[in-house]
Design a protein that fits this description.
Layout: H1 3-14, E1 36-40, E2 43-46, E3 51-54, H2 69-81, H3 90-102, E4 108-112, H4 115-130, E5 134-138, H5 156-159, H6 170-174, E6 176-179, H7 184-194, E7 198-203, H8 219-230, E8 233-237, H9 249-254, E9 260-263, E10 274-278, H10 280-283, H11 302-315, H12 320-340, E11 347-351, E12 354-358, H13 367-371, H14 375-387, E13 390-391, E14 400-401, H15 408-425
Parallel strand pairs: 3-13, 5-6, 5-7, 7-8, 8-9
Antiparallel strand pairs: 1-2, 2-3, 4-10, 9-10, 11-12, 12-14
Helix pairs in contact: 2-11, 3-11, 7-8, 12-15, 14-15
The structure holds 4'-deoxy-4'-aminopyridoxal-5'-phosphate.
The site of 4'-deoxy-4'-aminopyridoxal-5'-phosphate has 16 residues, from helix 4.
Length: 426
């Protein structure tokens, strides 16, 4: 038995499903997961010392690749000074200042420890500010495992075909309205009917959790207008897109400014940091200044903040995103070429450094089109790619993430593998 197999048997005894987060389990693609032992740049090594080019990149958190020396140094130095105090630290303000400088909608920010905490708190803030209970989200968008946000959620819930989940009270589900992503007409209908009760519209400005689906032209502008017309707040969940698609997230690129922004993943450079931010007038409604309660023992944790700060310093460099996007563009071009010289029906959606290869002949412009993809073929593809040393997210409905550590050689290796796998699984 390989070391990976032995570790998996042991994990299954003590962790439900063998994992601490369902998307890692690989059951949708019919294989056992590999165990990560170490990573460096674009590469990871498993427990059997096999090397892979990695496009999971901690589900988007590793914008700079694995074990970036500046991040390692910053975290180690923070650890040597103390892991946590439960007192304010100077670095928290420094990180908040950088976020406010970079993200257009943010004047003040509160740090939390995960994307889920960020969206949960943002929704509470929106409800507290508006005095309304209902929220509107989009089918196939995922905003963490918050009760009211798990309705028709993407990511692992979509992969495992769990459109709802036991354990979420019916009253929470009743407060959550859903519309198809990219369908402004449907949103207008809902807002005409229920707008006066809606606290917020929450959206991934570029969907990443049904696979990558870019917003149609005018979609985000339309949401901005409809939210304002009804006195609801617009929340951009930029947990994936924040700092990845641009220094100021996707809002900077599309020119639409939400009321509240949620952040995570890249913000912590692989350490557990989330955040939510908004104009001061909204953020000042939080306790202790205002009545809306939100708190956390480890919020703004020194190690996590040290990782985040080191990461921010790197991505603030001129040309960082142009260079990153160029690497992803080269990969996309190679994938498109490999698909067109095969007999497989597939299409690639890319926005900046996030992309998905969908096994369908149709253009994927929303949830229904994403669901049309052939998950069985994806499973065969995933397995064969892993056997060739390329680690992809184990689901058709996830984004592949390119980091600044990925090289042209990585892209070549990946595209060569795709070419031979596509001919093998035909
Ligand atoms: N929002 C989005 C857009 C996400 O992709 C995720 C996680 N994939 C979350 C929120 C939740 O973040 P976390 O897993 O850190 O709780």
């Amino acid at each position: 038995m390989s070391r990976n197999e032995t570790l998996w048997k042991e994990a299954l005894k003590y962790l439900p499903g063998g994992v601490n987060s369902p998307a890692r389990a690989c059951c949708p693609v019919g294989v056992e997961p590999i165990f990560a032992v170490r990573g460096r740049g674009s590469r990871i090594w498993d427990a059997d010392d096999r090397e892979y080019v990695d496009y999971v990149c901690s589900w988007g958190a590793l914008l700079l690749g694995h074990a970036h020396p500046k991040i390692v140094e910053s975290v180690a130095s923070a650890a040597s000074r103390g892991a946590s105090f439960g007192l304010p630290t100077p670095e928290e303000t420094e990180l908040a200042k950088r976020v406010a400088r970079m993200v257009p909608s943010v004047e003040k920010v509160r740090l939390v420890s995960s994307g889920t905490e960020a969206t949960m708190s943002a929704v509470r803030l929106a409800r507290g500010v508006t005095g309304r209970d209902k929220i509107l989200k989009f089918e196939g968008c995922y905003h963490g495992h918050v009760d009211s946000l798990l309705v028709k959620a993407g990511s692992g819930a979509l992969t495992l075909a769990l459109p709802g989940t036991p354990g979420v009270p019916r009253e929470h589900v009743a407060q959550t309205l859903t519309a198809p992503y990219n369908d402004l007409g449907a949103v207008q209908e809902i807002m005409d009917r229920e707008g006066a009760d809606v606290a917020c519209i929450i959206v991934e400005p570029v969907a990443g959790n049904m696979g990558v689906v870019p917003p149609k032209e005018g979609f985000l502008e339309g949401l901005r207008r409809m939210a304002a017309d009804c006195g609801a707040l617009l929340i951009f969940d930029e947990v994936i897109t924040g700092f990845r698609l641009g220094k100021g997230g996707y809002q900077e690129l599309c020119g639409v400014t939400p009321d509240i922004t949620t952040l995570g993943k890249a913000l912590g450079a692989g350490l557990p940091v989330g955040a939510f931010g908004a104009r001061a007038e909204i953020m000042d409604r939080l306790a202790p200044d205002g009545p809306i309660y939100q708190a956390g023992t480890l919020s703004g944790n020194p190690l996590a903040v040290a990782g985040g700060l080191a990461g921010m310093r790197e991505i603030e460099r001129d040309g960082f995103h142009e260079d990153l996007d160029e690497r992803a563009r080269i990969l996309e071009e190679g994938l498109v070429e490999a698909i067109s010289s095969s007999s497989i029906d597939a299409t690639v959606n890319r926005v900046g450094s996030m992309l998905t290869m969908f096994f369908t002949e149709r253009k994927v412009d929303g949830y229904a089109a994403a669901l049309n993809a052939d998950t069985e073929t994806f499973g065969a593809f995933f397995k064969a790619m892993r056997a060739r040393g390329v680690n992809l997210p184990p689901s058709q409905f996830e984004a592949w993430f390119v980091s600044s550590a990925h090289t042209e050689e990585d892209m070549e290796k990946t595209v060569d593998a795709v070419r031979s796998v596509l001919s093998e699984i035909t």
